[in-house]
Design a protein that fits this description.
496 residues; Jelly Rolls; nine-stranded antiparallel beta sheet; eight-stranded antiparallel beta sheet; 3 helices; 37 strands; 7% helix; disordered N terminus
Length: 496
């Protein structure tokens, strides 16, 4: 009998695996923030764009998502630089780089020499954090009118130590780089990750920067002359330009592609305020689901709510999900903001039906670079078709998930579609630690099985009620089953 059960469960498992959708296996490169490029800080590592942008002058805007892992001692950490003449040459073009303390610098060269008197510009007083994703932008209207933004927030600036007197950008026949600069004294290189680098030949406003920093561009935006996402593939040496200028680059040296954790989606909404009393952020979906953020505390500079309109590249920890998920990015000042989530799900989202509605959950991960999704331990309100979570802290991505209706039907085929449930009771349900089972028949075996039909626990009660430890069970749906005199009884157990 035991051998037969094992054989039947093997058949069930094979059948379920054969039904798994293709979205569970593959890893498309452009989902959410897709792929980023990692620079190890070593000489020779860069993205070479060639001799381009020789007509670029004021005004201009440069944007990027950065994840610096170190500010290099004694050398600069460049994000982008045009006209890389190299050691022994002169300062030409424009560049955006960090100094050894992490202050962001934008300067231009005069084309005449290699000293501090041959460059000029401004730098930030503030410093972005290491080992965290930050959106940076510089808007250079003129050599004397330069604004910097960290996560959409205007930064205070001072002049650099340069003493050049030119007011226009002078170019040469030398190449432009991302993640590297060859200035007259040495080659310097960025250490960390870069993603979604953008170059504009217009001055972007503060609101324009905020509106699109957590969204992908179409590539046809007015003034956009460079947009490098690094999403081609993990092994491709080509870096495609998604703008209409098609200024593709090439990976040189030890720079490598890796999964990005930048908070980027297909659509976003945002708010920047100094008073969040009564403020909410709302974003619908193509499947009728809706996520709302409210009760925002600790007064962040701003908050972004974005949506990715594809399945996540990793489904680890999930069962059935709609073809979209959400993310939250907080522009804060070092104090982590908290907020409440209110997820309204629709029976048009393609995965939830009355048979599996009780298994509805909201799962989470920190960002796109994390493979595993975990239960957010939110509260399900079936009568309102909602899942709620209070006082969630920090950046996060969220997805709605339910148990597969195919798996539930398989369980029904094992224990019977007409199995009775009214005489078995479980509480608390959902549970995180242990459950009390009531209504069991004394001295008659009962089982706990998962949605694949696999036996998780077997016992024989000495009384009609017993306590079972479920703390080690993976989060999900289980079934308590007992055969009483030829009639199969079952009830659902929810583990969170």
């Amino acid at each position: 009998m035991k051998t037969l059960r094992l054989f039947l469960r093997s058949l069930i498992l094979i059948f379920v695996l054969s039904l798994l959708p293709n979205k569970c296996i593959g890893q498309p490169n452009e989902i959410g923030s897709g792929i980023a490029i990692n620079f190890p800080g070593t000489v020779g590592s860069r993205v070479d764009l060639g001799d381009v942008y020789n007509s670029v002058n004021f005004p201009l805007t440069i944007e990027a998502w950065i994840y610096p892992t170190a500010w290099m001692p004694s050398v600069y950490s460049p994000v982008m630089a045009s006209d890389n003449y190299g050691p022994g040459g002169h300062y030409y073009g424009f560049w955006l780089r960090f100094n050894t303390s992490g202050n962001l610098i934008f300067e231009i060269g005069d084309g005449y020499g290699a000293g501090s008197s041959d460059r000029r510009g401004k730098k930030t007083i503030g410093v972005p954090p290491l080992n965290a994703w930050t959106h940076i932008a510089v808007v250079a209207i003129s050599v004397n009118d330069i604004n910097f933004y960290f996560n959409g927030v205007l930064q205070s600036t001072v002049d650099t130590d340069g003493g050049a007197i030119n007011t226009t950008i002078l170019h040469s026949s030398y190449p432009a780089y991302i993640g590297c600069q060859e200035h007259p004294a040495a080659e310097v290189n960025f250490t960390g990750n870069l993603d979604e680098v953008r170059l504009w030949d217009i001055a972007r406003s503060e609101s324009e920067i905020r509106d699109k920093m957590c969204e992908k561009l179409t590539g046809l935006e007015p003034g956009l002359i460079g947009n490098w996402r690094f999403d081609e593939s993990y092994v491709s040496s080509t870096v495609a330009d998604y703008s209409s200028t098609n200024t593709d680059g090439y990976v040189i040296g030890s720079a490598v592609k890796m999964t990005s954790g930048a908070p980027i989606g297909d659509l976003s909404v945002l708010v920047y305020s100094d008073d969040y009393l009564g403020v909410t952020l709302d974003l619908n979906s193509i499947g009728g689901d809706h996520l709302k953020l409210s009760n925002i505390t600790n007064v962040p500079f701003g908050m972004h709510l974005y949506r990715v309109d594809q399945y996540p590249y990793s489904m680890t920890g999930l069962q059935e999900i709609p073809e979209y998920y959400y993310g939250v990015f907080i522009a804060n000042d070092g104090i982590t903001a908290k907020y409440s989530l209110d997820y309204s799900y629709s029976f048009s989202n393609g995965v939830v039906v009355p048979e599996n509605e009780s298994s509805s959950k909201l799962y989470k991960r920190l960002n796109n670079s994390y493979d595993i999704w975990n239960n957010s331990l939110s509260t399900l309100f079936i009568a309102a078709n909602k899942i709620k979570k209070k006082k969630h802290a920090g950046d996060c991505e969220f997805v709605f998930t339910v148990d597969s209706i195919t798996n539930i039907n398989i369980v029904n085929s094992i224990v019977g579609n007409n199995a009775e449930s009214y005489s078995l009771m479980v509480y608390p349900n959902p549970s995180t630690e242990s459950i009390i089972c009531q209504g069991l028949e004394v001295d008659t075996e009962f089982y706990i099985i998962n949605t694949l039909g696999e036996e998780i626990f077997r016992g024989t009660p000495l009384q009609t009620g017993c306590q079972i430890d479920v703390s080690t069970y993976p989060d999900g749906t289980y079934f308590l089953v007992q055969n009483k005199g030829g009639v199969v009884y079952k009830t659902i157990i929810m583990k969170q």
